Amino acid sequence: MSQVTTAVRPWLNRLARWLEPSLVAVTVTGLAVGGILWLAGVRDAADAVWAATTAVAFVPAVCWMIATLVKGRAGVDLIAVLSLAGTILVHEYLAGALIAVMLAGGRALDAAAEGRAARDLRALLDRAPRSARRRVGDEVTVIAVDEVVVGDVLVVAAGAAVPVDGRITDTVAVLDESALTGEPLQVERGPGEPVRSGVVNAGAVFEMRATATAADSTYAGIVRLAEQAGAENAPVVRLADRYAAWFLPLALLVAAAAYLASGSAVRAVAVLVVATPCPLLLAAPVAIVSGLSRASRMGVLVRGGGALESLGHATTLVMDKTGTLTAGRPRVVEVVAAPGREVTAVLRVAASVDQMSPHVLAEAIVTEALDRRLDLLAPSDVTEQAGRGVRGTVDGRRVEVGKLPDAMLTAAEWTRAVVNRAGLDSAAIAWVVVDGELAGAILLRDPLRRHAPRTVRRLRRAGLRRLVMLTGDRPEPAREVATVLGLDEVYAGQTPADKVAAVRRERESAVAVMVGDGVNDAPALAAATVGVAMGARGSTASSEAADVVLTTDRLDRLADAMDTAHWSRHIAVQSAVAGMSLSLLAMIVAAVGLLPPAAGALLQEGIDIAVILNALRALRGNPATRLELRTATEQLLHRFAGEHDTLRDTLTLLRAAADELADHPHDPAALTAVRAAHRFLTEELLPHEQAEETQLYPALAGPLGSGEATATMSRTHAEIQRLTTRIGTHLDLANGAGHLDPDQTDDLLACLYGLYTLLRLHFLQEEENYFTLTDDDLEPATTTTVSDSGRSRRR
């Protein structure tokens, strides 16, 4: 028996896959052929074709009804079966064919929008290690990963995935753990430290001793988590079935009352005909599918209507940090030159050597240099030491980029300041050594996405009451991101199992949406009510475990998807309620004998057309949430965004002048630095701010609703002008006296440091609130600062 079942199951699966589209084709063809015959005057043949069409739909309708009843609920399928049977009994074949088409179309639409399907774990399984290199004595052999036993010595080649959990035995290993933690920065593990299966060797070959078999290792656990999480969620109950729960007994009650009161079966059938649940069968699926179509045009792929419906009434959002709220890759945030050296020269030689390195930090340094349009030189004799960095010869000088011995880090005051700043900012440091002398340092970190703050505010307005962040990162940077975005809860240092447990807890109390982008997020995405994957740069595993995929890699598209889900669900409910209300009115008329079945079928078709047209409004989206920008306004936003990129680098003149004044208040060089900062303010910054005030802000008043939306920014402009004037007054006094008086120093320092902080915050506010309104993903240029008084300009 089991052999027969095994042989029949593939055939049944193929039949089920083709049933809905085939039924649509057959019923539409039958309705059309019958219509042609009827117009040709062959009425009996037309009735026969329509009757056959009704019978074709009746058989699967009975199967769907039984399947629904077996699950313990009565849905629209029961009304459809009764309606189809009733049209045959009273010889209303055209009505039966129309109902058959509506039923088949509704089922096909609902199948296309079906959510919470079985998870496809191919990507996870394909990425799992298949083999291992086992060393016995001096001999290394390749074995299947399932043959590894605890205690085996394994050799992990460069670029290979660690096959099982174990401990490193011989050297420092450089590992890419993003598959498990999601963090983009590579980590180092020394001898004796544990290493988990699934991570990638990003450095040189190393050896490890297995501490677990493949089945008991970390990566296998991730696959099991995803399987269990995907299996534990039942399919979402269709919107139509929820309304049918009360509409069905009401329709049967009216039909029964009509029969008992009149003794006429025709009246009862007439009631069932006008009670045919076409508004439920079509209105909800059409609105939902229209929402799916609109979402796809915005770069949001929703796997089904169930997911879109759930997204429409979600109240909890759980988010990964790296790649979701942050850019997911390190960027240069500061370049510091040693005293007597130039920032541009330091960055140029570092990037020249790093061209030959595949390291993620090296890629960020090269990208920064190219963004500054620096001409990189071709290095020679390049070598890379795992865990230490890269070295090579550039223009006859020996250059090293990477880590330094601890003794060198405290050799100078400026290096201690760099280390402290990196600790405060949770940044990585790449030290630059030229001919054995420390030349500078490059700080890198994973920056917050520009769209993140505005998106979080939009998600709050969309009805999300609880925002939670899960991350495998350390607590300090996680708390910093949570504070900036105003999140309700943050969990740091999370493993994939921890994330699944957290998502399950949130799902128990509310409809929970989970957003992530890495392999380590796949189980949590599967466990959520709705899983959302950042698919443009995220892993295939996370995309396949998710219900929603953001193909444009923009977090703000999630807010767009939420708006679309709310609007589509609103239109679906509106259409269904309106259609059922009209059907109920028609049922009452039919019950008293004023509406025969044929006329009732025509009236029902009119109701169907009305609700379908209303449901198609979901294609346009909610007009209240649409933000339309004129071309001229978009051009202004692009222009001022570009000016920000240039001015941001030069803001450090203010801090450099303040530092010089604080360290050497009586030195003429301090006064010179303050003058240079004031020239920058009056010649470059203030014209930019004035242009924003007179050109950009008035243009934004319309799209944002009123001029009040930019009122706080205008007040900041006034404060910038006031502080600049104050600095100028101090310089006028100094020019008259030939030097700065001691009582001027404190106020000047307050003005310079305050203006520097105010401008950085002001730039961020404008970028997050205004520049993100454009269609393009205007990710911020790397926030690069310099430690000397020279200017660094970049477009």
Molecular structure report:
Helix 11 (305-312) packs across helix 21 (556-591), helix 12 crosses helix 13 (360-371) and helix 24 packs antiparallel against helix 27 (742-769). Residues 1-13, 113-124, 229-237, 536-541 and 776-795 have low confidence and may be disordered. This protein is 57% helix and 13% strand. A 7-stranded mixed sheet has the order 10-22-21-20-11-18-19, with helices on both faces. A 6-stranded antiparallel sheet has the order 2-1-3-9-4-7, with no helix packed on it. It has a 6-stranded antiparallel sheet with strand order 12-17-16-15-14-13. It is built from 27 helices and 22 strands. It folds into 5 domains: 11-116 and 235-287 and 569-619, no CATH class; 130-213, Distorted Sandwich (Calcium-transporting ATPase, cytoplasmic transduction domain A); 304-327 and 449-551, 3-Layer(aba) Sandwich (Rossmann fold); 331-445, Calcium-transporting ATPase, cytoplasmic domain N (3-Layer(aba) Sandwich), CATH 3.40.1110.10; 631-773. It is of the alpha+beta class.
Cα(first) to Cα(last) distance is 72 Å
Kindly provide the radius of gyration, computed on alpha-carbon positions and rounded to a whole number of angstroms.
34 Å
- Describe the largest sheet: 7 strands, mixed
How many domains? The number is 5
Approximate shape = flat
